[in-house]
Amino acid sequence: xxxxxxxxxxxxxxxxxxxxxxxxxxxxxxxxxxxxxxxxxxxxxxxxxxxxxxxxxxxxxxxxxxxxxxxxxxxxxxxxxxxxxxxxxxxxxxxxxxxxxxxxxxxxxxxxxxxxxxxxxxxxxxxxxxxxxxxxxxxxxxxxxxxxxxxxxxxxxxxxxxxxxxxxxxxxxxxxxxxxxxxxxxxxxxxxxxxxxxxxxxxxxxxxxxxxxxxxxxx
Amino acid sequence: xxxxxxxxxxxxxxxxxxxxxxxxxxxxxxxxxxxxxxxxxxxxxxxxxxxxxxxxxxxxxxxxxxxxxxxxxxxxxxxxxxxxxxxxxxxxxxxxxxxxxxxxxxxxxxxxxxxxxxxxxxxxxxxxxxxxxxxxxxxxxxxxxxxxxxxxxxxxxxxxxxxxxxxxxxxxxxxxxxxxxxxxxxxxxxxxxxxxxxxxxxxxxxxxxxxxxxxxxxxxxxxxxxxxxxxxxxxxxxxxxxxxxxxxxxxxxxxxx
Lengths: 219, 257
What we know:
The complex is a heterodimer. Chain A has one domain: Methane Monooxygenase Hydroxylase, Chain G, domain 1, CATH 1.20.58. Helices cover 84% and strands 0% of the residues of chain A. Chain A has 7 helices and no strands. By secondary structure, chain B is α/β, with parallel strands linked by helices. Chain B has a single domain, classed as P-loop containing nucleotide triphosphate hydrolases (Rossmann fold, 3-Layer(aba) Sandwich), CATH 3.40.50. Chain B has 10 helices and 10 strands. In chain B, strands 6-7-8-3-9-10 form a 6-stranded mixed sheet, sandwiched between helices. In chain B, strands 2-1-4-5 form a 4-stranded antiparallel sheet, covered by helices on one side. The longest helix of chain B has 14 residues. At the A-B interface, helix 3 of A face helix 8 of B.
């Protein structure tokens, strides 16, 4: 007989809520990027408005975790599952905030003609989101090796960030009237780089969940 | 089992086995107990934890048909081999049980009982011991005006603290506690736990408890017993965060046992 089937099902619900929150955040990032590329200001506004759904989900996760700690006296891996659920939801919430930032940049640029076709920035986003998917898979399957592998990709995102920002800033002397747009696009690169950092933190938490040991993969 | 350095052992149990008739109740136990620390023993019913604690002051000898082998070293002396004075051993290794069991005497006489047996007769000496013992268990303020009242008139929690004071009155080095709060209400339980944390400054404490949170709150080391074996002995913080053995994890997370 499983003596803690209710508790086990609550732990699973907590994990599912974190994963659902991550799924919504990923959609938000993609939608924000789409709004930026297509200069779809209505869509950008929708991304900003939808963020409160993700925020509310984070509060629900906080409440559920608090109740579980208060009523179940979790220890060892059970306790790590709850702590990691809380920490991952916090990282995911900040990823969603980056989606909002990208959407705000899209609004700042508005309908101003792009200095060039936006091709590399979505590629960088794809890299960051691929990392996110891997980190979430590692979380779902409790796979520390996959989490480590995912975190290793952060360097490539950092490298691309440096390269893209250099390239963007190079356009300023050429197109000084587009400085606002160029600055906003540089910010967007920064937001994506932050998404990869939050993802690396998720991967660290997965390793802590599985092994009980802390790793700093952000170095 | 992880190994930690013990420089200052109150007990050093080595290759210890115990049988009740044909039943092998404790199997090859190696268990160092450090001085002035609280060591908690946890494990499911029938795992041998109470049996183990009762061997430390040879209370186990009162049970017929018990056989033992190995060593229980106390102060460098194997108490299983040496011809020792049991009264003296139990003066040094006091014990408290599940439920307070005061003698049907006054509060004062309960505490003075041990010292009197050990030859203390002067009233002033006895008064001093009674006051100090009651203060040690934080009972003094509650009973100072009624030391001659019957001990059985105290509440359950007070009776248990009185019994701890009675054990302390003979100035033991070690205090064994066998589920000392299992019959108490939550506040009395917390009072005893606070007291344990105070007492460890002066005494070595070994506590058997079914309350895992209690073990986590009061002890420095935790030992997990299962079916007569010592599965894991380590720092309490380690046992409750990252136990080495999956059976320990299964037990502390409430999934078996």
